[in-house]
Design goal:
heterodimer, A: 3 helices, B: alpha/beta, two-stranded antiparallel sheet, 13 helices
Chain lengths: 83, 413
């Protein structure tokens, strides 16, 4: 399990006052009551925390792990670009 | 207004600097508890006047994630107090279909923190983006929209923004909507969350804010006292549930009081200086609307901001309206404790007036150390007072801009 996923799970738990045990990787966001508007807001805060921009290449975001995979992909790209 | 439908107040909800819950709120007022304090935040060092009446951290445990993400503090305060009001009324939605429900909200500004955060990101930090939901968080009707969803109201869902009279106007316009037969149930009140750096600084520049009391910051707002120095900004929300009288009776609701009268009258004089004439017109029209003689009123929750001129003008207006009877009025200025809630002020003070009627005890004007000889009325100084004969009360809300709103409530007779 990536550090990214853990950080995202912690952020979701804190921001939306959700029990951590509900935040498994395959948990659909919709079932947590996180709708599209809320996802957009959450991605915005992720950009600050990870110092990245997600806006361009955003695929379908349906589960907690979808967010982590997206962030990891952008982080890798960023690292490759810098090195 | 014997020809139109009567309106019952059946539920109350409050989130305030002196307590959350309509009963806790009123108990705190009776005990003379002040919610005014020295603000402690990252910007407070840069404020000339550091006073505020804050609600503190909100308990959002009942909020789903979307609601937390999609609400500014101003809306969260509204949802919490409207939810309490509906519960307090015994969930009146069961008896009235959504088409017959309306929402009426007073709000002076909207999501001020969102606006300031956006400006800080753009102008101060040089960023090229703001929060994606900034528009929806900041818009002034967001709180009403959320209360509309909470109460599932398909009727009118309206926001009134008339500075410090907003909350009273919202309740008064809800009364009218029920009277005309447009709806049978209204969730009405006010909400405001303006303890932000930019707003506090703007008020500071107007020189109407109280200076901090040397001995105790909590005692800085002293309406009707000779040593008064001004108002203290506060935040919070208050809502009432209003129902058509017959609808409320039919469902077996507990009727707290009748909302008997309302009027809104304008000064048409000056942006900030209050005018006796406008206030007199509003009070007289509200009494006429209620079908009550001035001698029927036993208690007034005054606008009482503790500015030198504001308290003087209101006292003059009260004398003009009530004549000899003015000396028999118990006049309370509860802003001494909960501060000035701006767009929510008229709503929270109406709730205090309703509570005073129901319990037949009026809250004090706190920290009235030196009665101002120029004013000379009975301001219920520093101690709550039992009034077993109390039948009717008036609540005043006078706004910058010159809008004066007055509500009159009475016990069922």
């Amino acid at each position: 399990m990536s550090d990214t996923l853990k950080r995202i799970q912690t952020m979701l738990a804190e921001q939306y006052q959700l029990a951590p045990e509900r935040l498994g990787p395959d948990q659909p966001l919709a079932d947590l009551g996180i709708d599209s508007l809320t996802t957009i807001e959450f991605m915005f805060t992720l950009e600050d925390v990870f110092s990245i921009r997600l806006s361009e290449e955003r695929g379908a975001i349906e589960t907690v792990n979808d967010i982590a995979k997206l962030v990891d992909a952008v982080l890798q790209k960023k690292a490759a670009g810098i090195s | 207004m014997s020809s139109s439908r009567r309106v019952a107040v059946t539920g109350l909800g409050v989130v305030s600097p002196v307590g959350t819950g309509a009963d806790f709120f009123f108990d705190a007022l009776l005990a003379g508890k002040s919610g005014i304090q020295r603000l402690d935040s990252h910007y407070s060092e840069r404020l000339g006047v550091r006073l505020g009446a804050s609600v503190g951290k909100l308990d959002l445990s009942g909020f789903p994630p979307t609601l937390i993400a999609q609400t500014e503090r101003v809306s969260q305060l509204a949802i919490l107090s409207a939810r309490e009001a509906l519960q307090n009324a015994g969930l009146p939605q069961a008896a009235t279909p959504p088409e017959r429900r309306g929402v009426f909200v007073g709000c002076g500004f909207g999501g001020a923190q969102t606006v300031e955060d956006g400006y800080e990101a753009l102008f101060a930090r040089g960023q090229d983006r703001v929060r994606p939901l900034s528009v929806m968080l900041a818009m002034s009707n967001a709180a009403a929209a959320h209360v509309g969803m909470l109460s599932e109201a398909y009727g009118p869902c309206l926001t009134y923004s008339n500075a410090c009279a907003s909350g009273a106007i919202a309740i008064g316009e809800a009364l009218r909507s029920i009277r005309t037969g447009e709806i049978d149930l209204a969730v009405a009140g006010g909400t405001e969350a303006l303890l932000t750096f930019g707003v506090l600084k703007s008020w500071e520049m107007l020189h109407v804010l109280a200076t901090e009391d040397e001995r105790n910051p909590a005692e800085s707002c002293r309406p009707f006292s000779a040593d008064r120095t001004g108002l203290v900004l506060g935040e919070g929300a208050a809502f009432v549930v209003l129902e058509d009288w017959q609808t409320a009776k039919k469902r077996g609701a507990r009727i707290l009081v009748e909302l008997a009268g309302y009027a809104c009258r304008n000064d048409a004089k000056h942006l900030s200086r209050p005018d006796t004439g406008g206030q007199v017109r509003a009070m007289r029209a509200a009494l006429a609307d209620a079908g009550l003689a001035e001698t029927a009123i036993g208690h007034v929750n005054a606008h009482g901001t503790a500015t030198a001129i504001g308290d003087q003008v209101e006292t003059e207006a009260l004398r003009a309206v009530f004549g000899e009877h003015v000396n028999r009025l118990a006049i309370s200025a509860t802003k001494s404790m909960h501060g000035h809630l701006m767009g929510a002020a008229g709503a929270i003070e109406f709730v205090a007036a309703v509570q005073a009627l129901v319990r037949r005890i009026v809250p004090p004007t706190m920290f009235l150390r030196q009665p101002d000889p120029e004013l000379g009325l009975d301001f219920v100084a520093n101690e709550a007072r039992r009034m077993p004969e109390l039948r009717a009360a008036m609540s005043n809300a006078f706004a910058f801009g010159g809008t004066n709103a007055v509500l009159v409530a009475q016990l069922d007779s």
